[in-house]
Amino acid sequence: MFSQIILNLVFKFNIVIAILTGMAYLSAYISPYRCWFPGFLAYGIPVFMALNFVFLLLWIIRGSMRLLVSLFTIMLGLGNIRASYSLSQVNPPVHNQFSVMSYNVNCFNPYPKKGPKDKETFESITGYLIKESPDILCIQEYCSYPTIKVFDTKSKLLNTGYRHLFYKTRGKDDRLETAGLAIFTKFPFIRSGTVENESQEVIAIYMDLSIVTDTIRVYNAHLFSMGLINHRQPEANNAVKRFIGKMKTGFRAKSAEAALLRDHLLASPYKIILAGDFNETPYSYVYKSFKQHFNNSFEIAGNGFGVTYNGKIPFLRIDHQYADKEISILNHRVSGNMTITDHFPVVVDYTLE
Q: How far apart are the C-alpha atoms of 77 and 22, rounded to whole Å?
């Protein structure tokens, strides 16, 4: 009797989790700009899915038809499983293959203070970039100090095979060459431009490149992060209110920026590749709004969980690459050994054939 009471309580909890999971699925189709709080639920999808698997296993062991609740919930979210974990074969090199690396270098971690430790960190990151030498390099939080030779990123990279650089800060002053977006390329350069948000801050840059016999527009994006929030959100005395206020501002800002960027992509006269730090998980409205129109490189050619964030929150994939559906995605890899920065580099191989 007591055992049955416990099982009934567990089943009620099972139903609650199933409902929350369904609401989390739906949140990915509700713009946070219009209704921001469902965005919280999307962050919980991995936990909700894991709990549903536990319940499913429990009812299978018990031989109970109650398993149908979690089974149905899991089936509804199969797309999220694919977005979380991928198994793909590594494709061998092909003719006219080219690579794109996206890397948030955190201003070469930390801002150079011209000390021995900073020099060592800087040289480790730039040495990695020079060794990997992708055909197109998209850097977020790029920094260069032209007056200090050892911290002169621009010269170091342009002297190793890159033909062109396009760089912009999030604001309007590019003279300091700090905390901005940069694209280095080995391909012939046709034109460049920026995408700005409603506050006229640069959220993405692009370059039109002549690759093989085609012209490709490559975007490098860095969408709104909570670290950029203080100048927009008044500080509240209560910690909970402050946290909720920041999350609300962040959800709305990112969805607005994503909408502007998506419209710019869809208006491109050329096929596009989009790379960058989106500060969004694969379960979010922002992620799915891009996936609706373009292929995500991890889901096509990734392996494992594809974790890209090296911060305090584990198992986050917030750096993404998307490509026009006419561009073939061959391989997607994350350099998890670059632990000196708070993001891991993402390298994707493409071909136009």
A: 8
DSSP E strands, the chain: 97-104, 136-142, 164-169, 180-185, 189-196, 202-211, 214-222, 271-277, 295-296, 319-323, 328-334, 346-351
Contact between 170 and 178 under an 8 Å Cβ cutoff? The reply is no
Summarised one tens digit per residue, pLDDT across range 221-266 is: 999 876 544 444 455 567 777 777 777 787 888 899 999 999 999 9
Distances (CA, A) of 48 to 187, 189, 193, 320: 45, 46, 41, 23
Choose among 171, 164, 163, 166: nearest CA to 182: 166
Please give the radius of gyration of the chain, using alpha carbons only, rounded to the nearest integer. 22
Domains in the chain, CATH or no CATH each: 2-84 (no CATH), 97-351 (3.60.10.10)
- Using alpha carbons, select from 104, 81, 129 the residue that is nearest to residue 311: 104
Task: Characterise 96 by phi-psi region: left (phi > 0), alpha (psi -120 to 50), beta (else).
Answer: left
Work out the number of other CB atoms within 10 angstroms of the CB of residue 227: 8
